[in-house]
Amino acid sequence: MAAAKKIIITCASTGASMTPSMSPYLPITPQQIAEQSIEGVKAGAAIVHLHARSPVDGRPSNVTADWDAFISPIKASCDAIINMSASLGATAESRLEAVLALRPEIATVIVGSMNYGNFKKAREQGFSEADVAGFKHQWEKDSFGPGSYDVVTSNSFKTIDAMIAMLTDAGIAMEFEIYDVGHLTVLEHHLNRRKVGGKIIVQFLTGILGGITSDIDHLLHLKNTAERMFGDQLVLFTHGTGMRNIRTATFGGMMGTHIRIGQEDNLFDRPGKPFKSNAEQVAKIKHIFDELNIDTATPAEARAMLGIPAK
User: Fold this and answer.
1) Helix 278-291 and helix 30-43, axial crossing angle in degrees, nearest 10
2) Residue 75: pLDDT above 70?
């Protein structure tokens, strides 16, 4: 994989783990998600990576109507590439139900299982166990409280294979989410069995307890390993978790990979100072790249890089 001539910025607008009690600026209603995603694109993002939430209390949702309530306005208002997370559900079919109904240009496939230390995310955002106990909604307390120590994200070989087959048949591009270097070997196994035409889009999710950290030597090792495995087919994205996210994105840009930032991965610029929007995060990384003479891609340019048909 040659270093990217222009860097694609993905804006991960809301996610499934950060919660309303953590920041008043986290978008959770369809209108908020749509507005913040559109503003993020105006600030320089080419892709919006999305999760659905219940408009009632902000909990993660995979109800197609909840998805469509913000995806349709985003499509109508900007030319961003839509990337739908397919991470919620026990089976490939349940994870892809909304994706197959709404047909985004990209859907995510998580490659590999791991202990997912969500409680660490709360600490990194500056919230103690006492703070979590005082969160408004019970699902928030469950997400970061004692029960989170029991959580294992399950992505079996059967589920991964089925999702690749279903998305290939549907003609929807896949972003393979990698949490650790061993997940690259899992991906290689699947792609040796079921060839994927076009680009192999890989997203490094680093800094989550249970996966690899966001240290530069680890990022370089991930990059070198992925390039060795997938060669010119590879299109690589890097992002971190917590308040190191902007720094990790900067590392990614300097390494020549594409990057992801947004309220899904981090809510605070520094301790006690929340980002007020996704656009604020996009503008910050865009400013850093401008200062480093690193050019960023438009949605049209990103489609060409990813092998996605022009809109």
Assistant:
1) 10
2) yes
